[in-house]
Amino acid sequence: MKTTLYSQPALPYANDALAPVISAETIDYHYGKHEKAYIDNLNKLIAGTEYEDMALEDIIRKSEGGLFNNASQAWNHIFYFFTFSPDGASEPSGELRKAIDLQFGSFENFKKEFVDAGVKLFGSGWVWLACDEDGKLMIIQKQNAGNPLTDGLIPLLTFDVWEHAYYIDYKNRRAEALEKLWDIVDWDVVSSRYDID
Ligand code: MN
pTM for the whole thing? Predict the structure, then answer.
């Protein structure tokens, strides 16, 4: 049995660096407790199994039930929190910018459609920007721990719409919570995930 399974990476910014969009208290609970619990559960579930030496993305593609839920939630939260920066690029660039303009009409319209998809997602889940192998972009709603990796797609951006993501700072105002996230998305990170070559 491996002694070191998955560990939680330290965030590349201070816990209060994203305030007031995401408060230090929300980071403490959301990353420090919710995300930590998914990683701890993942480690317990894979210890001594065929999944122990598997890449996390492959566990997500090949598992179901409780293992899928914890593996995907562990991955999704790291992907989500590592998209943000207090001083990142405010707009997409390069090939991603061209694709957004072409497929959504404009960056502004893309942001509107993305937030609308998150607001209309009933219950807990994630709204995603993903692309296929040809670089075609799509906005996808996923319930609970869902992840576009299971559809053979490449995730580019996600907003967490579980209530635990926004209730401390925004109470029930999901639309406002999602719209404010645009202020901290680092589009250099998102653009770098879009590699269609
Ligand atoms: Mn969450």
Answer: 0.95
